[in-house]
Amino acid sequence: MGEADHYRVIYGDFHYTTENATRYALLHLILYVVYLACVTKIGHDLIVHDQYFFIKGLRNLLQMPDFKANDKIISFSNVITITDFWDYLQFVVIPLLHGNVNNHSKTHRVIHRTRNLRGHLFLAENLLLGPPRLRQVRVKKDNCEVHSSLFRYFNACYTPYSKINEATDMVYKGTRYYTMDELQAEPIKATLHSYSSGGYVKLLSYEPFESLAIIQRLRSEKWLDRASRLVLLELNMLNLNMDLILSIKLIFEIMTTGIINTKYSSQSFYTSPLNGGYATECSIVIYIINFYYTYIEALRISRIGLRLYFKKFSTYAFLPAIFICYILIYMHISSSFYSAKFKSAMNSNNVDFVPLDHLLYTFSRQQILVGFLAFFSWMGLLAYMDFVPLLRTLGSSIKNAFTDLAAFFIMVFVAFLAFALLGMCLFGKENYNFKNIPSAFLTMIRMTACDFNYFELAQEFPLSASLYFFTYVLFIFFVALNMILVVIVLAYKKATASTAYKPSFLLYYIRKQIFRLTCGLCKPPRYPHNSQENQDDNTFNQERLQQLYITNEFTEIESDLNILHIRLNLIDKLLNRFTNNMDDIIANVKKQKKQQMNNQKTV
Q: Which cysteines are disulphide-bonded (predicted)?
């Protein structure tokens, strides 16, 4: 019993069936609660809580419609052609940044004592980190195949965007080509493609009339033409009140048909997310506790082996959290490096446009990792809940049904993929939900969760949509879901029948400590019995004593069997190595005998 308890205490199996194990589990639970509180605190501080309203307000401003003299509506969502794009810049963006520059009768007021900030402030609260920047990505000419009969209509052709077909000439109509590294930029994710390119760059001005003149000149020179595949307007700014950096990208993707797809992208983070609110102290505590957990998990692996280690539930909660912590250390160092570069660019007079892509990318990935860390950390709390019989039985039932559930999910995945491919071929040309395989597969999951507008699909395809939806519901809801319920219910019944009762010492240990601390003022605890339902308050006969004795014997036997299985695994590994070595020796002896026989024949 002593060796089994020693194994359980050191190598991280948290249970409450003995007093020593309960004390060990409670100590680790207290440490884990401290770790969990620090993780939750970091996740709370990394989020800009009013970020949604801040970004939504700026998005509403940039998407606000305007009207030309002929009552034509100009807005971000209504940009469909290249002409609409130039009108949007001239009549919406420039007036929004600088006021009504198209009305030449209006005079601009100079802000008192802030003459050098003219045109640098947006909404009087946000400092522009450089003038607005235009970037264009182009493709090469004549890289597509055109039928000879069409040459009289088109003297040149331009393919869709790809990295191979991208135009990288040094200069295009007075604008220089830059790589992503030179611009310190990240790839642009548009509606159809991802653009891993810098492109041709043109900076606007802080002065409204200079910006307007630049836009009109680019428009007259046809800076955007049939070879253009992407143009975006970038705005980087700093909110002086909240120390908040904001990057806005208005993305206009020009398809080969000449139609433009618009996309709004923005990110905002604090310049120093972990400063203030004990966030730095919590990070240090998390990293220190993570080193301790790394040591514990390494001991478990060395003691029980990888095969048994990956059969435990706690492995899939603790191990991802440990690796995420080490990645966060690297991300924290990277964010500190990019923050220093950002502050250096802010204080430099030689930087026209302060880049934020690398800094915001690092901050966003850091926030995502902290979210996953919080998820796995809270899930790891279930490993300390062995004192709840329901959770113990549920874990055993899931373990018993794992093979059946895995086979079931493979079958459901194949069915989802088949229905997704069928839906894409039937409805993909008309319905947005089936435009490609990922969207169609996600639509299948949404149908299972009843988050799908069937009537919209039925209006476009009355007959095929009805048959498609009926067969899907028949297979998924009436067959597949009932199968998974049967598997889980049978596994739970089997686990309930096979799981032996183990008394919990948790309340006994807590009451015992309270009894000691109060010097006997509180009621002394009662020793846990094997069954609370058949227990009498005043009698403790020989039958109940025998039941408790059997339970204790079962606990000892189970612990000894665990150690025996581990030792048998080690012996099995040694025998396998011995067998492999014997096979190698026999093969070498046969090879040597064969060589000797060949030598004798030659002699």
A: 144-157
Each residue of 508-555: pLDDT tens digit? 888 888 877 887 777 777 777 655 444 444 344 555 556 655 666 666
Neighbours of 129 (CB within 10 A): 21
The secondary structure of the chain in percent helix, strand, coil, rounded to multiples of 5, reads 60, 10, 30
Does residue 217 belong to any structural domain of this protein?
yes
Q: What is the Cα Rg of the chain in Å?
A: 34
Q: How many CB atoms lie within 10 A of CB 33?
A: 12
Number of domains in the chain: 4
C-alpha closest to that of 166 among 174, 178, 155, 175 = 178
pLDDT one-digit tens code per residue, 418-463: 999 999 998 888 888 888 888 888 888 888 888 888 888 888 888 8
**Cα–Cα distance for residue pair 479/471, rounded to 1 Å:** 11
Range of the domain at 412: 399-498
User: What does the alpha-carbon distance between residue 573 and residue 571 come to, in Å, rounded to a whole number?
Assistant: 5
The domain boundary, picked from 478, 498, 518, lies at: 498
Domain shared by 63 and 39, yes or no: no
Nearest residue to 103 (alpha-carbon basis) of 131, 69, 76: 69
